[in-house]
Write a structure and sequence with these properties.
The protein has one domain. Helices cover about 80% and strands about 0% of the residues. It is built from seven helices and no strands.
Length: about 200
């Protein structure tokens, strides 16, 4: 990957912190992150499209209880990273959705590991309360690094996979993926109809 794409991975990892761990400014919502990523990759229109599609696709999944929803940031940045390397957006989007779902399992594993670590840190903070700022900073830095590694490795692996598969993709496959990609917003809107209907009553 080129330096601009690595910088985009760094920025995406920072935005992922905004989802739950820090800031929570809503910049990590796909509908906002998409245009930002699109601007950084040189195609704002593609960023807007991917952001809206990802927002509609994941809009009815709420992070309640033990549910960790797919990452909107990952679902948005992977397609645009691939698109910047010449891979069609309709292929990149589906790879991005798969990566976002995979990230939710990765995040669950990180949270379980972090919970064990926090039990140890809680005792340390009890003995030295002044360490709390440093511990929080280290925890956020580790979360950022793990997310950056995940996004970078997955973007690299996805691009390599597509470069290998591209010569074997027939026009009918392109048409099927393009049609499926265009159906995504309608699927998202269909999932929202029952929600609006319940609120209207």
């Amino acid at each position: 990957m080129t330096l601009p794409l690595i910088l985009l991975c760094i920025f995406a990892a920072l935005l992922e912190l905004d989802t739950t761990y820090a800031f929570q400014t809503l910049l990590s919502r796909p509908v906002i992150a998409g245009p930002i990523f699109g601007w950084l990759t040189g195609d704002v229109a593609a960023g807007i499209q991917v952001g809206i599609f990802a927002e509609l696709l994941f809009s009815d999944i709420s992070p309640l209880g033990g549910i960790i929803p797919p990452s909107g940031v990952v679902a948005t940045v992977i397609p645009l990273l691939l698109y910047a390397q010449g891979i069609d957006l309709y292929f990149g989007f589906f790879l991005g959705v798969c990566a976002a779902v995979l990230y939710s399992f990765f995040d669950a594993l990180l949270r379980k590991t972090r919970f064990k670590w926090l039990i140890f840190l809680e005792k340390r903070i009890g003995r030295r309360p002044s360490d709390i700022t440093r511990i929080i900073a280290i925890t956020l830095l580790l979360s950022f690094l793990m997310t950056f590694i995940f996004i970078s490795v997955l973007a690299w692996a996805s691009s390599q996979l597509m470069f290998v598969l591209y010569p074997y993709l027939t026009p009918r496959m392109h048409f099927a993926f393009r049609l499926s990609y265009l159906a995504v917003p309608w699927i998202g809107l269909a999932a929202l109809i029952p929600v609006f209907r319940l609120k209207a009553r």
